[in-house]
Structures are given as structure tokens and as C-alpha cells.
Amino acid sequence: MFGNQRRESTDRRVRRTRKAVQQALIELVLEKGYEAVTVTDLINRADVGRSTFYAHFADKQDVLFSNLDELHGLLRLAPAARPGTLFAFSLPMFEHLHEQRRLARALLGRRGGSAVIARGEQILATVVRDELLAALPPRSTPPPSLDLMVTCVVGAFMALLRKWADGEINATPAEMDAAFRAVVTPGVETALAAGAGRP
Amino acid sequence: MFGNQRRESTDRRVRRTRKAVQQALIELVLEKGYEAVTVTDLINRADVGRSTFYAHFADKQDVLFSNLDELHGLLRLAPAARPGTLFAFSLPMFEHLHEQRRLARALLGRRGGSAVIARGEQILATVVRDELLAALPPRSTPPPSLDLMVTCVVGAFMALLRKWADGEINATPAEMDAAFRAVVTPGVETALAAGAGRP
DNA sequence: TTTATAACCGAACAGGTTGTTCCGAAACAA
DNA sequence: TTGTTTCGGAACAACCTGTTCGGTTATAAA
Asked: Which residues of chain B have pLDDT under 50?
């Protein structure tokens, strides 16, 4: 009854309610930032009974996640770029968030919540991890420091994203992408090449 | 009356009160994690009147900051290492947090607060920035992407720190330091060397 | 169309948090 | 000693969360 109930409900009332709440979250986040939005705000804006809300979502964060997982698909799409290019997600990501910059700022910026960022890091980490595994020299075993590398890369990327969304950095998506890649790629590539184990 | 009142108060009552509250914060953070600590908890543990608390601190975060700035000094100490070695703060930092790991976990881990992390990033950013400036080739102007680099480096480091403090990563301080350096150093060094402007 | 069911409303509630205010009592510095 | 500062602590308004419950309404299926 709670949470990650992905399958579409058969009952029109359920669909209506869930969509109304999700939409309300977006609107309110744009107006006040994620942190400042309360459940009471949500049910007022969505025009939904309090008990109804809690019948569908565990809390505010649950609404967020139900809205946020779309990004996962968007990220998994990107690595279709030419192989040999690490971190293909980077540029599309910056570009996407540039178009949606109001929402991005409200979610990731100073008034955004750590929950958003934590979730983003989770999602991104799986993507980066897969990409690094795919980029390993053939017939080699993943180095034990793989997860450390993933953490580094994700941390660097998300940090850039946050500052950028916050307006502390003025740069084009291309410039952001270039900076990210410049810092991170050389180290990762040599580490991957060097860390080749036995087949 | 509020906040960053660094100079020692002349009144013993003031000193007593402030110290009691700060100590209470440490104890409670160790027990519940920063996020879960409330002002009510603080004044109970410190055995201080509610009005007294608000006469000294604006809020919970204010207490934290008054306790946290000691780290700044600790970081500025490290770069006394041999020049030419970038990110000298890294290993000492990991080692220090390893000794204080209970507190580190309570502050930086999942139950720690974004305020702690944000403050840590701020402090670390100034240190990294100074270090990069000092490591520039002589008679060159800093590249415009310097702040992007700083953000990347700080982001990567703090991400490692968080996961480590959280227990998601099992590694010695030396291993953490090595991983951090392996990913970040090559990119930064070439960027610094290449970005040399005219004198 | 009828009907059983599931979803909704909304008010009310208990429990928790924050930050302010007030004034008498106590501790302090001079 | 004395005038000033700080402390205590209760009481307060305002807000938030999550739960409960009985009556109402929409829906899907028969």
C-alpha cells in the first residue's frame, strides 16, 4: 500500500490522487525549495484529505522518490555513446539540468534537501559502477578499490552539480562537463589499466 | 550576543553555560546522531534553562559550528609537509577521523546532518584552494576553472569521508588516502601545468 | 443497472518541536 | 556592598507529524 508501488493502479481515484500529490510537490518545490515543503502544504495544494495522503505515501520523501526515479532511465540511456568514452552521462546530465534549471536548483541547491542528493548519488553510483566495469581491460578482475573510485567520481560530480544548481558557478554545460572530465578521467583511466588482475 | 562570539567571556556563568551546551551536543550526537538531537535534548542534558540557551545560541546548528571550527586549525597545520605533494591534508585527516571514529560517524554518517557536511566542505574548500594556488607553476595566473577543480576535489574527498564514516567502506586511512590521490591527482596536476597563463 | 467494495474526506487528536516572553532569584564584577 | 548581568523555568503560541474513525462517494465488476 505504501511506497514504491510502480504498477499503475486500476482505480481511477488512486491514479488521480497520486498524480495530484506528485504534481503538488513539484509546484511547491519550485516555490519554496524541497526542505521547506511540508506534508500539510502538499495536501492543501493537491486538495487531498490528510488521511488520503498517508494512505498513499509514507511521508514527503516517499513522494519525492516516486517522482525522482525517472532520472534513472534518463541516465541509463546516455552510455549508448561511443565506447571508450568514460562518463558519457556527464554532458547530457548537465544539459538536462540546464533546461530544468529552476527545478534543479530547488531540488539540489541550498534550499534542496539532503534526501534528494543522497538519492541522486545512489542512482548515479550504479551507473558509474557499471560504466567502470565495462571499461575494464578484457579478462581482468575488478580492482578492490573500484568502489572507492566510484565514490570519488560520484562525489566530484554531485558536488559540481550542487554548486552549479545553486548559482555559485557560472558555466555552460560543456564547461562543467570538461572540468569534471579533466579532473577525474586521467586518474581513473590509469587506475583501471594498472589494476588488471589475472583472468 | 549570538553566534560566533569567539572571545572568551569574562563572566564565569557564561563560560559555564556555553561549555555545558557544547559538551551536551557532543554527548548527544554520539548517542543519537546529529540530526536526531533536538534543542530540548540539549537543554535537558546541559541542565540549562530554555531561555538561557536561546540567549547564547541561535539554534542547534550554531552550537555545532562553535564546536566545529577547531578542525580548521587542524587542517591548516597539515600542508607543512614537503612541497610538491598535493593534498597533504588527506592522510592526516583520515587518520584523525579514524581515531575519533565514533564522533566522525555520528556527525558525517547517515544519521549526521547536511549542515555538518556543508560546513566541512566550506572549510576544506579554502584549504584546497590555497594549496592549488601554491602549487601553480611560478609566474602563471590561476586558470578560470580553478574553482571547478576545487569543487571536484572537495566533493570527491567528502564523499569518501562520508561513506567511510558510515561504515560502508572498510579500509585503512592509508588506503583511503591512496584511492583519493589516485583518482584526483593526475587530472589536477596536468590541469595546473597546462593552464599556465602569462605572467 | 445494481451492488459490494474500495477510496476518499475531514475533523479531531496526541505527541512532538521551535522560539519567545516574563520576572524573581542568584551569581558576578567592581 | 551594590548595581548589573545572567540564569531558571514555566508558560505560551505556533507549527508540524502521523493516526483514527465514521460517514460519503466513486468505481469496477457482476
From this structure: 1-7, 197-199
Cβ contact, residue pair B159, A121, below 8 Å: yes
For the CA of B53 and the C1' of C16, the distance in angstroms is 19
CA distances from A143 to A81, A140, A163, B157 (A): 25, 9, 31, 20
CA A133/CA A116 separation, integer angstroms = 26
Q: Which residues of A touch B188 (CB under 8 A)?
A: 183
Question: What does each of the 199 residues of chain A score in pLDDT, given as a tens digit?
Answer: 333 334 466 789 999 999 999 999 999 999 999 999 999 999 999 999 999 999 999 999 999 998 876 666 666 666 555 566 899 899 999 999 999 899 999 999 888 888 889 989 998 999 999 999 988 888 888 888 999 999 999 999 999 999 999 999 999 999 999 999 999 999 999 998 876 544 3
CB contact under 8 A, A176 and B151: no
> In Å, what is the CA distance from B97 to each residue of A154, A177, B103?
22, 32, 8
Using the C1' atom of nucleotide D8, identify the protein residue whose alpha carbon is closest: B49
| pTM: predicted TM-score of the whole model, two decimal places | 0.88
First to last CA, chain B: 47
Residues of chain B with C-beta less than 8 angstroms from the C-beta of A166: none
**Cβ-contact B139, B191 below 8 angstroms:** no
* C-alpha span between A36 and B138 (Å, rounded): 48
**Within a 10 A sphere around the Cβ of B58, how many other Cβ atoms?**
12
Strand D nucleotides within 7 Å of a protein CB: 5-11, 15-22, 26-29
